């Protein structure tokens, strides 16, 4: 089931760097159901948020559709990786 509205409190993933996966898993296991991220590699690791989602589903039975994911796009060329 996809949450209809975001949680009142959203877990932010900025500046977590290599700890992003473990911290997102821990936050969800503690009760967070909303996660904030962005496609800005200077401050965020969306790939590691994805790893956390895989762990949460495979090891803890928490499906992606049970979580609210919020992302952003900032058009600042110096902060974007080319596709």
UniProtKB/TrEMBL annotation:
InterPro entries: NAD(P)_OxRdtase_dom_sf
Superkingdom of origin organism: Eukaryota
Protein name as annotated: Uncharacterized protein
């Amino acid at each position: 089931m996809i949450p209809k509205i975001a949680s009142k409190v959203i877990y932010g993933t900025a500046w977590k760097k290599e700890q992003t996966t473990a911290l997102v898993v821990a936050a969800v296991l503690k009760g967070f159901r909303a996660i904030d991220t962005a496609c800005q590699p200077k401050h965020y690791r969306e790939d590691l948020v994805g790893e956390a989602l895989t762990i949460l589903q495979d090891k803890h039975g928490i499906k992606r559709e049970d979580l609210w994911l919020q992302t952003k796009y900032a058009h600042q060329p110096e902060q974007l990786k080319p596709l």
